[in-house]
């Protein structure tokens, strides 16, 4: 397990917010392996270090892995300064502090993974680990094959060229087209920007799978916990060790 900033660990344990955790550290109320820590930015290994707050030894909470079928109209965030509904409002009954892995914009739907396992979340979002994310996209217009090939090879957006994408035409009508898209990266509103660049704005966008994890059995707004087998499959896909078992 990678090291973690002490104030983040305190927040993950439910002791405090991150800002309040910093105050506890500065006040000398936090000890690591028996010694008081006063330095902000201190990192710890929660699996090896003994961390105390006012004499109470903290243990890292168990990892939680949830998939949600996100409906339209929800922000993929823990909080929203503008007061818009976030996906957290759909997770009734979940007591652990978890957060979304990656994003689906407000108008997009589909599979969203949420967890408190920071290293797994990082690897799932990083293109280096080549985790496939599959989308079903309904387009306005009928893109030419040569334009789809541009997207397959990578297209230049404002922040640089996109990675190659897999794209299949599912159905083609006179005015609209449905395609399946597989990406290994996840830039902000990437798919919408890609198809806008070839003159085919998106009518609807649904993420249907991350790796081998799918939406099967989940209606919009519903969630479920991943099975141990699904968690192990995700860890294996991003080359994350399963030692210790609950890491």
Please, could you describe this protein's structure?
It is a single chain. The protein has helices spanning 6-12, 18-26, 118-125, 145-153, 190-197, 228-237, and strands at residues 4-5, 30-32, 35-36, 43-44, 51-53, 56-58, 65-70, 99-100, 109-115, 133-140, 156-157, 160-161, 166-172, 176-183, 202-210, 213-214, 223-225. It is an alpha+beta fold. It folds into three domains: 4-58, Roll (Structural Genomics Hypothetical 15.5 Kd Protein In mrcA-pckA Intergenic Region, Chain A); 65-127 and 212-237, 2-Layer Sandwich (Alpha-Beta Plaits), CATH 3.30.70.580; 132-210, Alpha-L RNA-binding motif (Alpha-Beta Plaits, 2-Layer Sandwich). Helix 1 crosses helix 2 (18-26). The N and C termini lie close together (7 Å).
Helical coverage, percent range: 10-25%
Count of DSSP H/I helices: 6
Oligomeric form of this entry? single chain
Cα(first) to Cα(last) distance is 7 Å
CATH class of the largest domain: Alpha Beta
The biggest sheet amounts to: 9 strands, mixed
Number of domains: 3
What's the CATH architecture of the largest domain? 2-Layer Sandwich
* SSE arrangement, N to C: EHHEEEEEEEEHEHEEEEHEEEH
Q: Look up the CATH topology of the largest domain.
A: Alpha-Beta Plaits
What's the Cα radius of gyration? 21 Å
What class, by secondary structure content? Answer: alpha+beta
CATH superfamily of the largest domain: Pseudouridine synthase I, catalytic domain, N-terminal subdomain
Strand content: 25-35%
- The count of β-strands is 17
């Amino acid at each position: 397990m990678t090291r973690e900033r002490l104030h983040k660990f305190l927040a993950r344990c439910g002791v405090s917010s991150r800002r309040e955790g910093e105050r506890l550290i500065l006040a000398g109320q936090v000890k690591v392996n028996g010694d008081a820590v006063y330095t902000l930015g201190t990192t710890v290994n929660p699996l090896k270090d003994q961390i105390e707050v006012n004499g109470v030894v903290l243990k890292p909470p168990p990892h939680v892995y949830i998939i949600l079928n996100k409906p339209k109209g929800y922000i993929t965030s823990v909080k929203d300064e503008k007061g818009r509904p976030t996906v957290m409002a759909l997770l009734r009954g979940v007591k652990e502090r978890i957060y979304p892995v990656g994003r689906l914009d407000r108008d997009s739907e589909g599979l969203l993974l949420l967890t408190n396992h920071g290293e797994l979340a990082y690897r799932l979002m990083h293109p280096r680990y080549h985790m496939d994310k599959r989308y079903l996209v309904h387009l306005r217009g009928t893109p030419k094959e040569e334009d789809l090939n541009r997207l397959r090879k990578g297209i230049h957006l404002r922040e640089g060229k996109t990675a190659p994408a897999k794209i299949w035409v599912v159905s083609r009508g006179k005015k609209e087209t449905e395609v399946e898209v597989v990406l290994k990266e996840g830039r902000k509103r990437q798919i919408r920007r890609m198809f806008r660049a070839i003159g085919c704005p998106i009518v609807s966008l649904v993420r249907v799978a991350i790796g081998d994890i799918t939406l099967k059995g989940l209606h919009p707004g519903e969630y479920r916990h991943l099975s141990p087998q699904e968690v192990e499959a995700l860890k294996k896909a991003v080359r994350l060790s399963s030692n210790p078992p609950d890491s």
